[in-house]
Design a protein that fits this description.
mainly beta; five-stranded antiparallel sheet; three-stranded antiparallel sheet; 10 strands
Length: about 140
């Protein structure tokens, strides 16, 4: 029974990832949920990344990117890249300690390189090697 339950849970998370149209760098990246935020990405480490497919940046492009994150430790940074993890970095968000793994704060950064049209967006996570950096709830372009 436990094996079927674990299989059903894995199938559920696969369906969630597909519905969100995203990929993650490692199987260690996991989705968690709580009553306040719903589903969020947890267990993020240095070098991990999330790909969001076919993001329409419009004809004029965004001026800033923002994301809701939580960190009980030092945090880190997020490079927002176009079309690959080594693609142009259009923004970098510095993520500070927020007070806890579910103490969410909104972080923002200006978009420093103009980007328009449809692109895959990569959120590339950086920080101290070893410990978990932060939890990632949602993001937006404005």
């Amino acid at each position: 029974l436990q094996e079927k339950s674990a299989q059903a849970e894995n199938e559920l998370w696969d369906a969630v990832r597909e519905a969100l149209d995203m990929e993650m760098s490692t199987v260690e990246d996991i989705l968690e949920s709580n009553d306040k935020t719903g589903v969020y990405v947890s267990d993020i480490h240095n070098g991990d990344w999330i790909k969001v497919r076919n993001v329409d940046l419009g004809k004029t492009g965004p001026r800033k990117v923002s994301a809701s994150l939580a960190s009980a430790l030092r945090g880190g940074s997020i490079d927002v890249c176009l079309d690959s993890i080594g693609g142009p970095v259009i923004a970098t968000m510095d993520i500070a300690h927020t007070g806890g793994w579910e103490d969410w704060k909104l972080f923002e950064a200006p978009v420093k390189e103009a980007a328009t049209g449809v692109h895959d967006i990569y959120f590339v996570f950086k920080g101290r090697k070893g410990p978990k950096l932060f939890n990632f709830d949602y993001w937006s372009f404005e």
